[in-house]
From TrEMBL:
Protein's UniProt name: Gliding motility lipoprotein GldK
InterPro entries the UniProt entry points to: CTDL_fold, Glid_motil-assoc_lipo_GldK, Sulfatase_Mod_Factor_Kinase, SUMF_dom, SUMF_sf
Nuclease in keyword set: no
Gene source species: Urechidicola vernalis
PANTHER family reported for this sequence: FORMYLGLYCINE-GENERATING ENZYME, SULFATASE MODIFYING FACTOR 1, 2
Annotated ranges, domain Sulfatase-modifying factor enzyme-like: 41-94, 241-446
Top-level taxon of the source organism: Bacteria
Length: 455
């Protein structure tokens, strides 16, 4: 009897599978055709091989940047450096999420024991969103019973959803009740630290928390996955004091006060951002995209936004010109009409001869042949690679990148508004410590291209 049942099962399998594929191996078919989507504000870098490193008679530079042929895969890269306006969206999201979390927690405390319809409820509209389980699926009911939510169990609220539908009130005269005043008051600097009748937001409270998996070490050690989940908590507001601290006996206070704050500089590159803050921005940008895709019922996860490797950065900066000194080729920093081709320090003490004393808008000068702006000058850019005199010798020739959690020196590329022309060369490399923020260092992000069929 048991043998007959097995035969029936096998027959059913043959009938069900053979109806469309005729018993042939056809592979698992996706429900929809995959089409690569070009991220907004990015350009496709086609990938390929190139000669990386110094190729001239710069003997000192060639000691740690020897020329060699390497290959990188295709990827997307931001056309411009991340601007103040773009980074400010990140800061505002962190600020608003903190305020909404505090309002929701205060609402829980104030309304404990009250019915939803009670007119005495405080902070109505700012409570955590409740999940309607009336017609919930078995999955939803199970998750709520086992984990208490459907969201991120690593979050401070255990994934309870914040209410983003209710607008936040920022004008003190319009605060709805004392509970709201109490929460908002906690976000600002103390009265004793205020001056000129102004109370400013305490930027040290603007912290972003995220988790990431140390895939490289996890793959090598084959250990428990839990041991390789890392938590990061970083203050996200740029260090605006870099305009003062970077330069002794120099009057740069207007830049300190207004560069990140004032709308006049919204299209200028963000500075005063550490390597860690740049990575936090990448994580937030990834989460923002994936949250959108989940809202569209799209099960496909977008590749992570990240910092470019040193090799990717140099390949993109060259713009397809393999042996050029600069993104535009070279060897000169001016056009045939005598116009400067980048924002840097052409001569000693003369910062403004190229048209700007400090930074310029991110979409200034001419783009290189890949459509990338300011790959030389304006601000130096963080990369994902660590700096070492021997990293060129250690790294692979396929997608080369040396990472070391213990090495705090991170490669910066491209030169800046305060640098001489040497640092603008596509093969020149420099470094800064990961926890440092400077008035001349910014960043741009990259995004993996899935597949290799570029049309």
């Amino acid at each position: 009897m048991k043998r007959i049942s097995i035969y029936i099962l096998l027959a059913a399998f043959v009938v069900s599978c053979g109806s469309s594929d005729k018993g042939e191996l056809v592979g698992v078919k996706a429900k929809s055709k995959w089409n690569a989507e070009k991220p907004y504000g990015m350009t496709l870098i086609p990938g390929g091989s190139f000669t990386m490193g110094k190729q001239d008679e710069d003997m000192a530079g060639a000691l740690n940047t020897p020329s060699r042929t390497v290959t990188v895969k295709p990827f997307y890269m931001d056309e411009t450096e991340i601007s103040n306006s773009e980074y400010k969206e990140f800061v505002y999201w962190v600020r608003d999420s903190i305020v909404r979390s505090r309002l929701a927690e205060e609402a829980d405390f104030m309304n404990a024991g009250l019915e939803l319809e009670d007119p005495g409820r405080k902070l109505a509209g700012y409570e955590y969103k409740d999940i309607d389980t009336t017609d919930a699926s078995p999955y939803v009911k199970y998750m709520l019973e086992m984990y208490g939510s459907l969201g991120n169990v690593n979050s401070p609220s255990m994934g309870r959803a914040l209410n983003w539908d209710e607008d936040l009130v920022w004008n003190p005269e319009d605060f709805p009740d004392e509970s709201y005043v109490y929460v908002m008051d906690s976000l600002y600097i103390s009265m004793s630290n205020s001056f000129d009748g102004r109370r400013l937001i305490d930027t040290e409270q603007l912290e972003y928390r995220y988790y990431w998996l140390d895939i490289e070490n996890a793959a090598k050690d084959k250990g428990n996955r839990h041991n390789y989940i890392k938590e990061e908590v970083l203050q996200v507001y740029p260090d605006t004091t870099v305009w003062v601290k970077d330069y002794n006996y120099s009057y740069n206070d207007p830049m300190h006060q207004d560069y990140f704050y004032h709308q006049a500089y919204q299209d200028y590159p963000v500075v005063g951002v550490s390597w860690g803050q740049a990575n936090a921005f990448c994580n937030w940008r990834t989460q923002k995209k994936n949250n959108y895709l989940r809202g569209k019922k799209n099960v496909t996860r977008a590749p992570d936004y990240r910092l470019a490797s040193e090799a990717e950065w140099e390949y993109a900066a060259r713009g397809g010109l393999d042996f050029g000194n600069y993104p535009w080729g070279g060897p000169y920093t001016t056009s045939d009409r005598g116009c400067f081709l980048a924002n840097f320090k052409p001569t000693r003490g003369d910062y403004a001869v190229d048209g700007a004393l400090y930074t310029v808008e991110v979409q200034s000068y001419n783009a290189n042949d890949y459509g990338l702006y300011n790959m030389a000058g304006n601000v130096s850019e963080w990369t994902n690679s660590v700096y070492g005199e021997s990293t060129y010798y250690l790294s692979s020739t396929m997608n080369p990148n040396v990472t070391d959690k213990e090495n705090k020196r991170k490669v910066i590329r491209g030169g800046s508004w305060k640098d001489v022309a040497y640092f603008l060369e596509v093969s020149s490399r420099d470094f800064e410590y990961a926890d440092s923020a400077r008035s001349y260092i910014g960043f741009r992000t990259v995004h993996d291209y899935l597949g290799t069929n570029i049309k």
